[in-house]
Design goal:
Elements: H1 18-22, H2 29-41, E1 46-49, H3 54-64, E2 70-73, H4 83-96, E3 99-102, H5 105-109
Parallel strand pairs: 1-2, 2-3
């Protein structure tokens, strides 16, 4: 019985480098950018920034930005979220070359009643 990791069952892109995958014709612009970023930075690390203030978020982005490709934020839990947050984070992301990914899951579940109450 063949193993689940045999070469016959692998997707053709598995043997391509990130840069090669980025240049495939059906690769979306964002995916291509991310694949090139992974190759350039030699990491595919995504950091979830579960902090509650702009100061904490900007400090975390500054300290980790060189080592990550994506910073996942939760703007709905940042108590002082505003223009300073947006401008500061965008500036750091541009300088340190990472993507900002906003995760709205807390907003999606915030108003729901717990089913066991």
């Amino acid at each position: 019985m063949p193993s689940s990791t045999s070469t016959a069952s692998r997707h053709p892109t598995w043997s391509l480098s990130y840069r090669e995958r980025a240049s495939l014709p059906n690769t979306s612009i964002l995916t291509a950018y991310l694949l090139r970023l992974i190759a350039l930075k030699r990491t595919n690390l995504c950091l979830s920034a579960d902090v509650t203030s702009t100061s904490e978020l900007l400090t975390l982005a500054e300290e980790t930005g060189d080592s990550i490709c994506i910073l996942k934020t939760h703007c709905d839990i940042i108590t002082d979220f505003g223009e300073r947050t947006v401008r500061g984070l965008r500036s750091i992301a541009r300088r340190k070359h990472f993507i900002i990914f906003e995760d709205r899951k807390f907003a999606d579940i915030g108003g729901m009643a717990h089913p066991h109450t």
